[in-house]
Input
Amino acid sequence: MNLSVLYIALAVIVIAGIWFVSMRNGLVRLNVRVDEAWSDITVQLKRRADLIPNLVETVKGYAKHESGVFENVTKARAATISGSALSNPAEAAKAEGQFQSAMKSLFAVAEAYPQLQASQNFLGLQSELSDTEDKIMAARRFYNGGVRELNTKLKVWPNSFFAKGLGFSERAFFEVADLAAIADAPEVKF
Output
């Protein structure tokens, strides 16, 4: 009788150990996936930020008197690649809203210059920017999906009982802080 109780206790301990290792490894995998997804977002934000000076210079050549617009775009660009925006989804979302608003102004200026609209350089930059925006949206969806999976796994019982003690915590979604700033996409007319 004592031996069977010992075997049952040993089996329960082994099963609990396997579950614990599996739970921890699952959380580690999800955490790494979220880190990877955030890295993808920062790469695309950097790519977009690298395109902006070229776009601004192209528009500047046609619209020299619009310096306020160019300053706003430059400030918004700097905000999207600042250290806090690249490490914190809430800061990135705030910078993203400001950037979208500044880009609307830039494209509004560009609409006033038909020669600019016909410029191959401008059209190429606009196409690259559009492609990059699509990649940013895809990276955001991937990141938010990873955050959803991680946060769900952290909240379900019994994971929620152990996860915080193992150093895991919920991650923030990449949500745009000012929805009004991005409610309408920049209108680009050719």
Remarks:
- Residues 12 and 18 are 10 Å apart (CA to CA).
- The two ends are 86 Å apart (CA to CA).
- The domain at 2-182 is CATH 1.20.1440.20 (de novo design (two linked rop proteins)).
